[in-house]
Amino acid sequence: MGQTEAVRPHRKKRSLWTDAWTRMRRNRSAVIGMAMFAIILLACFLSPFYLNYETNVIQPDLEAIRQLPTERHVLGTDELGRDILNRIIWGGRTSISIALAATVFSSVLGIIIGAVAAYYGNVIDSVIMRVADVFMAIPSMLLMITLVSVMQPTASNLVIAMSVSGIPGIARIVRGQMLSVMRNEYIDAVKGMGAGSLRIVVQHALPNALSPLISQIVSSVAGEIMAISGLSFIGIGIQAPAPEWGAMLAAGRNYIRDQPYLTTFPGIAIVLTVVSLTLLGDGLRDALDPRMKR
Amino acid sequence: MIRYIFKRLLQMIPILIAVSIIVFFMVGLSPGDPAKIALGMNAKEETVAAFKAEYGLDQPLGMQYLNYMGGLLRGSLGKSYTTKQYVANMIAVRLMATVIIAFGSLILTYLIAIPLGVLLAVKQNSWFDNISRVLALMMSSMPSFWLGLLLILLFSVKLGLLPSNGFDTPAHWILPLCCSCFGSWGGSSRYIRNMVLETIRQDYIRMARAKGCPERVVLFRHALRNALMPLITSIGMNIGTFFGGSVILEQLFGINGMGKMTLDALRQKDVPTIMAGVLISTVLIAVGNLLADLCYGLVDPRIRSIYSHPRKRKLKKEVAVSGAN
Q1: What ipTM goes with this model?
Q2: Are the Cβ atoms of B140 and A234 closer than 8 angstroms?
Q3: Does the beta-carbon distance from B247 to A145 stay under 8 Å?
Q4: Among residues A172, A262, B198, B237, which one has the fewest Cβ atoms lying within 10 Å of its Cβ?
Q5: Nearest chain B Cα to A248, which residue?
Q6: pLDDT 10s digits, B186-243
Q7: Which domains are seen in chain A, by residue range?
Q8: What domains lie within chain B, and their CATH numbers?
Q9: Which neighbouring-strand residues pair with A77?
Q10: Between vectors from CA B115 to CA B111 and to CA B116, what angle results, nearest 5°?
Q11: Rounded CA gap, A123 and A131, in Å?
Q12: What is the rounded distance in angstroms from the CA atom of residue A70 to the CA atom of residue A77?
């Protein structure tokens, strides 16, 4: 290593990540997705600084029920006179945090479980994969609904339910990737040099197995957001009076005949968030694995 | 072939047993007394005790599970705690709606997505292709229940063309099926387009053209058929999604289906009904996956030949390896 650096002292070090970042910046739709998601994230996560949960988000105002958009309420008010824009922003904060937390949990656990299965093989592998088969045999929405109903519908239980239904899929992908990476000669070389199993897996095998997974993880945040709003729509997700996009749609449904905007804006919020995450995920896929580019 | 189907069906049994154990104990160990939920909070001690004795709820949970599985082996799905009906009868009324939504959307998705995907591949980089890219993104980003609300608003409320509640006539089926398919029309047609574009660059396609095959034959016989292989894998995954989506759509369109039944049962800790809902969905998805895998045989003659000659183990392995790559 020292030698190469002596030969090319001024060459900037280029890693997979800097390369990917350069490619990503050139991809217009990925940049749009990134910008959209950044705006949504900022608006939602800075909301405690400019919104008061008690007075701006959940306090009913019975004199301003189901108003059309006005200067005071840019997106109108809901069936209890609460500002729809404020509720969308606050609800987005809840949905996105739950989705991110569930994705982080299921990815970390899925990666660990998948890596263990692939590295140790034999009995451990078959036991882990059979358990994964069982969880994947139940439709994930039904599994989530069962888990949430069995526990109480709180934010942390939603994260648990969504992580549990996400882990087997990720573990299976990681295992497949790891198995093909472990066949490479450089792994044998590292083994020959006497590296321990933790070092082989964490430092040499996993980084090469993960890059195809990263874009999938980003896109799965979009899927989780749809899932939370779906659960809240059927009444077992975030509970009233706390706002959530799916729950807002369910509440606005009763007034769809006369006040369709109650169900329009929360839906648009979901679509914009999901679109931004999908663009970002696709951009990452193209940037990290240019062979996949279509 | 029959041997293969039989083997696959046998493999389902341990998975189903594991699913039944997980769901039964998860629901059983959760807080709340099913007897009190079914009889109401003000029920007398004696009534609760009689109810528990009638349904075997006075026994330990492990024994309850064994009793349930014993009943299942004798072909009995048990009796619902809340409706007091036989679960089998409840399912008989509701199964059709869910099957129509789940498998109907599966068929409808590919009926439209396959020709559309081929068309998009043929018209690669035209304005039609570019618009479809944006449209597909929007379509697959729309939650089915929001689309459902918009469709109800347009077709039921404004135009008064289609009913928005119930599932009695085929006219009732249109909106739920469209909601269920909409997202996958966008996603799947793009996927099929990409698959066709990948195969269309292969040498055998050039060969077919050089032989003088009409473009239609090249596309549908040579390109599409090979592009369909990875598609079948995605069909297997979609079955589960459509089943899960059905739970939400049944709620939205007031459809009396399995999803709604399971959801209501979960709220009331009605164990026999929950178990039936989960287990039957699992079986249906597994059978759907099996059917999808059998389609490999329809599309790929190599696979067909393996199952007609069970001794050709070696070839089977080769195909499995090339399939895994």
Answers
A1: 0.84
A2: no
A3: yes
A4: B237
A5: B146
A6: 888 888 888 888 888 888 888 888 988 888 888 888 888 888 887 887 787 788 888 8
A7: 19-292 (1.10.3720.10)
A8: 87-270 (1.10.3720.10)
A9: A83
A10: 105
A11: 12
A12: 9
